[in-house]
Amino acid sequence: MPHLALNGGEKICNLEWPAWPIWDDRESNGLLSVLKSGEWWYGKNVKDFEGKFAEFQNAKYGITTSSGTAGLEVALLALGVGAGDEVIVPPYTFMATASAVLRVNAVPVFADIQAHSLCIDPNDVERKITDKTKAIIPVHLAGYVADMDRLNKIGKEHGLFLIEDACHSWGSQWKGKGTGALGSCGVFSFQASKNLNCAEGGIILTNNEELADLCRSYTNCGRGKDKPWYEHYVLGGNLRLTEFQAALLLAQFTRLEEQTLRRQTNAEILNAGLRDVPGVVVIENDTRMTRRAYHFYPFRIDSKALGVSRERFIEAVEAEGVPAGVGYDRPLYKNPLFERKGDGPEHCPISCPFYGRKIDYTKTSCPVCEQVIAETVWIFHNVLLADETAMHSIVSAIRKVCENAGELL
User: Fold this and answer.
1) 8-state DSSP, 196
2) Nearest 5°: phi and psi at 380?
């Protein structure tokens, strides 16, 4: 008789997982209040949220943006990253981490990641530094904080800016301090799938007042601080947040602390339960990371030991009632954008005529990233809001699939 639900066996998890987004009267009342006020644009709610979120992440200044992607572009512009500069980024991340670099006419250089953290490898960062390197963008993937001690040391030694892509790390802490202002600045996303969301939006955090003012100018049509409305100082854009979005964020923010701690507690249950399961590799937390905000729960599988592909494994786990997925299915440099060939911007992502060097992303190799992509499974953050019993059910389901992997051949 088959054991796995995929083959007709009994299903482990017959649960209704928490939906996302979670909302109640707090969101309704906030939106209705803005609607009735007639003040829909860039006012008190935006200012209140910027202050509260910056304080939550232990930063001095917060500048909201229309998206996390816009936030990365603005941060690069405000730091003076531009034509022909190189910016070191990881390949295991969302496209915006690299596309923001291209948008300011700079050149993304891919450094490999660490298998144990899924974050950028400081050793490979050092190997990739050239005389054109201007900045590093570490990504706190799934809320796991990149090695900011080592990266800040590298940045200081080489005179490089550190821009944290903190778009997965609302509430994550490194040595007791929130992400976002651990380097030069940091960027968060509030897109619909995110742990703190208003459908679309973002924020830049920094402890540098001059940088904060310049970021504000770039998001606000190039206007100067306390200057006349129709006086413009930099080539900015209309990248502001609305009062409706801020009202949603203020309501969502009231749950963030409790949800962050619940996800962390539940992830620890999964770690403890999966640590001794043959064929599963748990992503162990760095002790310097005093809190982790899980955007998803990642773990790796040993396909050779189990004798099945990661995709087949996920199919079996989902049949047991556990929502799981592949996540990023390729390194960024293997996207069609980067694999184009040719001498001009029509065929090549590098449009800057001042770079003066040839770059062929088809020759880029980050072997750890490529291995990780073939092995990693994501369990989504809404699942981590279920109760402890549900977490033990997930462990049982994964253990069952591993112990009966022979049925998947």
Assistant:
1) S
2) -80, 155
In sequence order, the 6+-apart residues with CB closer than 8 A to the CB of 245 are 190, 198, 199, 200, 201
CA-angle at 185, arms to 184 and 190, nearest 5°: 165
Looking up tokens 């003012």 gives 213
Please give the pLDDT value at position 62.
Answer: 98
The phi, psi pair for 187, rounded to 5°, reads -125, 135
pLDDT of 343 over the 60 cut: no
**Three-state DSSP class for residue 235:** coil
Q: What is the pTM of this model?
A: 0.96
Catalytic positions are: 94, 165, 168, 191, 194, 223, 230, 240
DSSP states of 255-315 as a string? HHHHHHHHHHHHHHHHHHHHTTSTTEEE-PPPTT--B---SEEEEEE-HHHHTS-HHHHHH
For the chain, domains (ranges, CATH) are 25-252 (3.40.640.10)
Helix (H) or strand (E) holding 319: helix 310-319
pLDDT class for 349, splitting at 50, 70, 90?
Answer: low
User: H helices then E strands: how many in the chain?
Assistant: 13, 13
> pLDDT tens for residues 169-209?
999 999 999 999 999 999 999 999 999 999 999 999 999 99
Q: Are strands 86-89 and 177-178 parallel, antiparallel or unpaired?
A: unpaired
Whether the Cβ atoms of residue 170 and residue 190 lie closer than 8 Å to each other: no
Residue 85: exposure state from Cβ atoms within 10 A (0-12, 13-18, ≥19)? buried
Question: How, if at all, do strands 202-206 and 185-189 pair?
Answer: antiparallel
